[in-house]
TrEMBL record:
Protein name: Protein PRD1
UniProt organism field: Solanum pennellii
Region span, Disordered: 1-20
Parts of the chain that traverse the membrane: none
Domain of life: Eukaryota
UniProt xrefs under SUPFAM superfamilies: ARM repeat
Length: 1298
């Protein structure tokens, strides 16, 4: 409302001129000041002009403007301020009240402000004093003429804010100003209020106290100011009035009684003040004030609104304001006005700040404010979005407090959309704070946690699918933030833990099984085990009080209490595997309060329930108040006799449970020696109760036995801990007399191992093993064993113990199998058999232990005890066990031949009639497989008699011959049979039997072998009958059979040819070959060189190579010259190596078998002419050029080595090959060349889950991996090792030539 002084431009200074001797009026030259333009100004003339009210306004205005311009000239300015600065003060003050002209008044005020820039500060003070005196005049009549004087005084008071003024007639001035406030002119009221504002602000004494002359007007001024504020329509007047009231409020003048009590002066008559001032009670003043500010709050001027809000805040935040005063303002709807201002603010920061801080104070009147808050809550949501984005916003915390107040006290007003908006804003704040984008005060984090907790209790959250995800993120971010900032703000963690606990409870509310709530629980448990638990264990010793440890324990307890959740059990397992018992007792050592002890033992109790079952740890929770905090003192409780003392007995059981659970997880809460001594003392003192009473029955007996066995096992490992034989005797007696159940409790593997090392309790253990076999067979129960990571294990730990061999478990199982045939039912037999079989399947080495303990004798007894009375299923189970043992056992553990002879006889006796009656069944096929594996082991000179029984069995020979004859008679239709049919399976098993019979007969019955008869039976008398197959039958099966049949047939042929090759090397000219017969065999083999199975192709290639070598040298050349098939193979090989793009796709895959044929042709005494023409220089050059380390194979190097031996390679080609070989070595050694070894194949002979199919796969794999005594090329597997070996042989060959 006040006008700024205009800055006029001025001309550059000209040379100073001498002042004229006199002016036109004859005034002295001392009053005349020259100007830079060459003229001069007579100050006396100027004074006379402006002091005369009758002077023309044009002249006055011109004179004032010329003086204002001259004051910008340095020389004029210096002269004027040096000699005449006070001369024009009185005339200028007179102009303001003499001329009723707005422009002149403005010029005058601008000139006065220019003059106040004088270095002499007294000019400013004198202007103020003269204006004040004029306004203090008793004859002052208020009119518009005084408006300019008031305005100028306000400008002067506002000009220097650091000046204080001691006005002589302050009381008269205030009186006149008070009178002026009662006028109806808002312009005058506004000017008066501004002057009063500046006077109250600036006229304090040096000690900060106010002049006594002001005291008499406070009450009147307050009433008038509030009245003006209430009625004013002008925003300027409102703004000045608010400014004046603000100063009064800052000075503490709002309550007269307070003023009198605190502002008394010795020089001032307080009694007079009491007589002249009205007393305004708190209630009416508050109501008047509330009514007065409503107009400014509705103003369209945002500055007025903010000033009014700040005035209210200043008043209500005073220390002397009572809650009933705040309630008056709320009842007068000030909160509603503030919410409306906030709603229309457009989220402008100053308005938000003023509104929120006022609402925050009004909220202290809780009951009255609650209804207003429910109505204005919607206005807070945009504000929350705004302050959430600004780090450390001044009203961020207050806004959150209002939001929390709304959600907590008015939950019904929060809609679903508002819940989503609030939660998203708060989650964003937490995420940005965690990422370091914004900061957050501890109080802010606490309010965020409280808001989320309040939202979770609102009914509006039901049905919001995303809210659980928001809570999940918020709880995680709060915890992570609190852990990071713990050193700085330790209290934050309590709020975060409170949120985490409530979030977990929320997940069990409505629709607790939903995926969202399930994910929320998983997230909370993950936060606990991944972040809180490691931090807690690391930072425990840095904590100063128990609040945080207690809060963490309460969170863990609330999670563990929900023992139906899988995640809860996992969390309990994480705690236990983290040495939780030792850590918890460490907490009690640092914070030995009853609260901490209660929390610790409650967690122990619920963890025990999770491990052992519900209500199994009730004795721990019941005895918790009486249990000591030191684990050593726990052991002390075991050293007392508990007869006739139920409470002591209950506490002792609690101690045993604590020791048992902690020991399961290798968490030692006391020294092993001390624990064992305490357990033995407990046994000795309470032996009578243990023998005859019920103190350790049921599950507690199992716990006690397992605990004792564990510490005895640990004592045995350390070799230093003594034990009591008497206590051991009592324990063994308990095992024998009481109903101990190994399956009822979890047991440490050390306990189990020690128990199975005790020969004195073998009878008890046998019964437990049988019970275990029954349960394992029915898959109803399992033994829970503590192993690594505390997994629940059943038969696996039994397998581990049997494999160790340092206990009686293997022997007891074999004994039990033998006893089963004498005492137990067929179901028990199957249970024991299946358990042993499963153990062998898990660890094949256990079969060695079972064989050492005489399992063959036990199986023989089963066969001969029951004979044909066994059901098919039982016989099948026993047959599978025999097969399983023979697959896994090492031959050196099969020294006892007699029971195996009996087993073989029984198998054959079962096999022959079963096949005749029912055909090939799974039982008969498994039996054939078992016989094959017996023959396989006989190669190592074990089970010799049993193998002879098989080989020489005429009934078995007849069965084999019949099966082979039936298969061969089918001819081409044989290949059309599905590989998974029973007939194909039977043929596979029979061929496996024939293969191992051939190898076994060669090893144990060498004299019975007649290779001439097997190869070509024409004109040869039949030798002693034994299980065998003739060559022409093999060729039929090889030609017409499916892939498994081809594979086994070719493998048998390779084994047969290898035997013939070996015999020819030892006895030359002992075998006769018919050329036509060999040619027919060669035709079959040549046809299989392109078989889709590489193993079949390689076997046939090796056989064909040996056949070529057997032909007579004279007939060989002509025969091979006529053999266009061999030439075609070699030519295709050369094309595939020299020009891969021209070769057929199938031959690119089968060049390895072709290499063997080519090498064999090169090895002839006389190399064929067409071989020389094929392997000419250009061809070999092309081959060597195409060879790289990526396509190099052992077979190819083998071919190159033979070409080198026979002089086909020149020096240039050898050098190129050496370079490739060097690169290949480098790649292999740096592991850059992928292993091109033979891939593992499976054959579709039966379903994968079928045991018969598994045996079939095993037999095929066993057949194909048997070493052959044939030519050197039969060793190739195309792996890295074989490739390096061939490269080394090539280098050695080269060195020999050099």
């Amino acid at each position: 409302m006040y006008f700024a002084t205009s800055q006029l431009p001025h001309s550059p200074p000209s040379p100073s001129l001498e002042p004229p001797l006199t002016c036109a009026q004859g005034h002295s030259s001392t009053m005349i000041i020259p100007t830079d333009e060459g003229g001069s100004i007579c100050l006396l003339c100027l004074s006379n002009l402006i002091s005369n009210p009758r002077s023309p306004t044009v002249h006055v205005s011109y004179a004032l403007s010329q003086l204002s311009i001259a004051l910008f000239q340095p020389s004029f300015r210096q002269t004027f301020f040096t000699f005449h600065s006070h001369f024009l003060i009185s005339p200028l003050v007179g102009v303001l009240s003499s001329f009723y002209d707005e422009p002149i008044a403005k010029q005058t005020m601008d000139l006065i402000m220019q003059l106040c820039e004088a270095p002499d500060c007294d000019v400013h003070a004198e202007f103020v004093a003269r204006l004040a005196d004029r306004l203090s005049s008793g004859s002052l009549a208020w009119s518009q003429r005084q408006l300019h004087s008031l305005h100028c005084l306000g400008l002067l008071l506002d000009y220097q804010k650091n000046h204080s003024y001691c006005l002589e007639e302050t009381d008269a001035l205030i009186f006149n100003l008070v009178s002026g406030l009662q006028l109806s002119s808002e312009d005058i009221q506004g000017e008066i209020l501004f002057v009063l504002y500046k006077l109250f602000l600036l006229n304090g004494s040096q000690d900060g106290e106010d002049p006594p002359s002001l005291f008499g007007h406070f009450s009147k001024l307050l009433d008038l100011a509030l009245a003006v504020l209430m009625k004013a329509q002008s925003d300027d007047v409102r703004l000045n009035c608010i400014a004046f009231l603000t100063v009064m409020m800052q000075r503490g003048f709002f309550q007269t009684t307070s003023i009198i009590g605190t502002r008394s002066r010795s020089s001032y008559d307080v009694d007079h003040l009491m007589e002249t001032n009205e007393q305004i009670s708190d209630g009416p003043l508050a109501i008047l004030f509330a009514e007065a500010v409503k107009g400014p709050l509705l103003s369209s001027d945002n500055q007025v609104q903010i000033a009014a809000l700040d005035l209210l805040y200043l008043y209500l935040s005073g220390k002397d304001v009572l809650e009933n005063e705040i309630q008056v303002f709320v009842e007068e709807n000030i909160a509603d006005y503030a919410f409306e201002v906030l709603r229309l603010s457009g989220c402008k920061d100053p308005t938000i700040k003023s509104c929120i801080q006022l609402l925050d104070i009004l909220a202290t009147a809780e009951q009255a404010f609650r209804q207003r808050l429910a109505i204005g809550f919607m206005a807070l949501i945009p504000v929350l979005h705004h302050v959430a984005e600004i780090p450390f916003h001044p009203v961020q915390t207050k806004t959150l407090r209002l939001i929390w107040n709304s959600v907590e006290n008015c939950p019904g007003v929060v809609s679903k959309s508002q819940v989503e908006e609030i939660s998203l804003s708060l989650t964003g704040m937490l995420k940005k704070n965690l990422d370091g984008e914004i900061g957050m005060l501890p109080e802010t984090l606490a309010l965020v946690c409280s808001i989320f907790v309040a939202l979770m209790k609102c009914s509006s959250t039901c049905g919001i699918s995303s809210f659980s995800l928001t809570i999940q993120d918020a709880s995680r971010n709060c915890i992570l933030t609190s852990l990071i900032n713990y050193g700085k703000y330790p209290g934050q963690l309590l709020n975060s833990l409170y949120l985490l606990k409530e979030a977990y409870s929320y997940s069990f509310g409505m629709n607790s099984s939903s995926s969202m709530n399930t994910d929320l629980r998983r997230s909370i448990i993950d936060v606990c085990k991944t972040h809180i638990l490691p931090w807690f264990m690391k930072s425990l010793h840095e904590m100063e009080d128990e609040d945080i440890p207690a809060a963490i324990l309460e969170n863990f307890y609330s999670i563990l209490l929900q023992d139906s959740e899988t995640e809860t059990k996992i969390f309990a397992n994480v705690l236990l595997t983290s040495s939780w018992f030792s850590f918890a007792y460490g907490c009690l050592g640092l914070f030995p309060s009853e609260k901490m002890k209660r929390n610790v033992y409650l967690i122990f109790s619920v963890m025990t329930d999770i491990i052992l079952g519900v209500d199994s740890a009730r004795c721990i929770s019941d005895a918790a108040p009486h249990l000591p905090s030191d684990p050593i003192d726990l052991l002390f409780l075991l050293g007392h006799k508990s007869s006739q003392n139920v409470e002591l007995s209950s506490r002792q059981l609690a101690v045993l449970l604590l020791l048992y659970i902690s020991s399961l997880y290798d968490d030692r809460i006391a020294d092993d020696k001390l624990v064992l001594a305490s357990l033995e003392q407990y046994i000795l003192l309470n032996s009578s109760e243990n023998m005859h009473g019920a103190s350790v029955l049921g599950i507690f007996m199992g716990i006690f036995i397992n605990l004792y066995a564990l510490y005895r096992g640990l004592a045995k490992v350390s070799y230093q801990i003594p034990y009591s034989p008497e206590a051991e005797r009592i324990v063994f007696h308990l095992l024998a007399e009481k109903g101990w159940d190994l399956l009822s409790t979890r047991i440490h593997v050390t306990s189990l191992k020690w128990l199975f090392q005790q020969e004195k309790i073998c009878n008890v253990l046998s019964a437990q093993i049988l019970k275990f076999c029954r349960c394992n067979c029915s898959t109803i129960n399992q033994i829970n064993i503590h192993g690594e990571a505390n997994q629940k294990i059943d038969v696996y730990v039994m397998t581990e113990l049997v494999a160790l061999g340092d206990n009686f478990l293997g022997m007891l199982m074999v004994f039990l199998l033998g006893e089963a045939g004498e005492q137990y039912s067929e179901y028990d037999i199957v249970s024991v058999v299946n358990t042993i079989k499963r153990i062998i399947e898990i660890s094949p080495s256990t079969s060695d232990q079972f064989c050492m303990h005489g399992i063959a004798t036990a199986i023989k007894n089963l066969y001969y005890k029951f004979g044909h009375s066994l059901s098919p299923d039982t016989f099948m189970s026993i047959s599978e066990l025999v097969s399983c043992i023979l697959q896994a056992v090492h031959s050196e553990f099969l020294s006892d031949d007699e029971p195996w002879v009996a087993i073989v006889v029984k198998i054959i006796d079962y096999l022959i009639p079963s096949v005749a009656a029912d055909g090939w069944t799974p039982g008969t096929l498994v039996s054939i497989g078992s016989l094959s594996m017996v023959l396989h082991h006989s190669v190592n000179q074990v089970m010799v008699e049993a193998s002879k029984t098989i080989i020489l069995s005429t009934h078995l020979l007849s069965l084999v011959n019949t099966t082979i004859a039936n298969a061969c008679s089918k001819g081409p239709s044989l290949v059309e049979q599905d590989e998974g049919t029973r007939s194909v399976e039977a043929l596979v098993f029979v061929l496996s039997l024939l293969f191992f019979s051939l190898r076994s007969a060669h090893a144990i019955l060498p004299g019975i072998m007649d290779f001439q008869y097997l190869l070509d039976p024409t004109n040869i008398p039949q030798p002693w009958p034994y299980i065998s197959i003739q060559c022409h039958d093999l060729c039929k099966l090889l030609h017409f059979g499916s892939i498994p049949i081809k594979l086994l047939s070719s493998q048998y042929l390779l084994e047969l040819f290898s035997g013939i090759e070996d015999e020819r090397s030892r006895k030359s000219d002992t075998l006769e070959f018919r050329t036509n017969y060999l040619s027919s065999i060669m035709a079959v083999l040549e046809g299989q060189l392109f078989s889709s199975d590489m193993s079949v192709a390689m076997n046939c290639s090796l056989c064909l190579s040996m056949l070529i070598g057997w032909q007579d040298v004279d007939t060989e050349v002509s025969a091979i010259q006529r053999n266009n098939w061999c030439r075609f193979i070699v030519e295709e090989l050369v094309i595939s190596l020299a020009a891969p793009s021209l070769a057929s796709k199938s031959f690119m895959i089968h060049h390895k078998p072709a290499i063997l044929i080519a090498v064999e042709l090169l090895r002839r005494k006389k190399v064929l002419q067409w071989m020389t023409s094929i392997f000419d220089e250009s061809c070999i050059f092309a081959i060597t050029r195409n060879i790289t380390n990526s396509n190099l194979s052992a077979e190819l190097v083998f071919l190159l080595r033979k070409l080198l031996n026979y002089g086909f390679l020149n020096d240039e080609q050898i050098a190129a090959l050496n370079q490739v070989f060097q690169e290949c070595r480098k790649c292999i050694y740096t592991d850059k060349l992928q292993n091109a070894g033979a891939e593992e194949k499976t054959w579709n002979v039966a379903a994968a889950s079928d045991y018969v199919g598994k045996v079939c796969q095993f037999l095929i794999s066993l057949v194909t991996t048997q070493p052959s005594s044939g030519m050197e090329s039969s060793r190739f597997q195309s792996g890295k090792r074989e490739l390096l070996e061939e490269i080394d042989l090539f280098s050695k060959c080269l060195m020999r030539e050099d």
